[in-house]
Amino acid sequence: MTRSSSSTAGLADAVNKAVAGVDDPEYPGVSIVDLGLVERVDVTGNGRASIGLVPTFSGCPALDVIAADVRDAASAVTGVTSVDVHWLASPIWSSDRITARARKALADRFTVAVGNDDEAATCPRCGESTVEQSTFGPSRCRAIHRCSGCAEVVEVLRA
């Protein structure tokens, strides 16, 4: 029994590592784990992996691509016999789920700020606060802000 549990734990670790290597298609180099999309990874003793993901919003056009990338990554792990990837209705994704590493990469590489409804987003260019110009950005999870310091237009990833 202990041997089986250890084997399952090792396989689960390998699947978690593989899933952590999946980048968001809009932000190459930024992991879906760091963006807070991965809610759970379960692996049974017979090698079946079940991966629950949280969408930034239900109509995101990248959902199928992300699910396929996760399925491919988990399927490539030796010992995995099947992979089920599903989008969860709960919990609801929030920008609070984004790690500091992803926030830095979004700012540095894509000049995208991270915000929420409770506080102003910080400009990734100059560090000043931003003011929302439109709740509608290039996708549903992004808004358009203007920096109060450098006056640049800033995309803000938000819940």
In CATH, the topology of the largest domain is named GMP Synthetase, Chain A, domain 3
Task: Look at the helices and sheets and give the structural class.
Answer: alpha/beta
- The tally of structural domains comes to 2
CATH superfamily annotation of the largest domain: Fe-S cluster assembly (FSCA)
Oligomer: single chain
What fraction of the residues are assigned to beta strands by DSSP? 25-35%
Mean pLDDT figure: 91
Gap between N and C termini: 43 Å
Overall CATH class of the largest domain: Alpha Beta
Question: How do the strands of the widest beta sheet line up side by side?
Answer: 6-9-8-7
Radius of gyration: 18 Å
Percent helix among the residues?
25-40%
Tell me the number of strands.
Answer: 9
* pLDDT < 50 runs, ≥5 residues: 1-5
Contiguous helical run count: 3
Outline: elongated
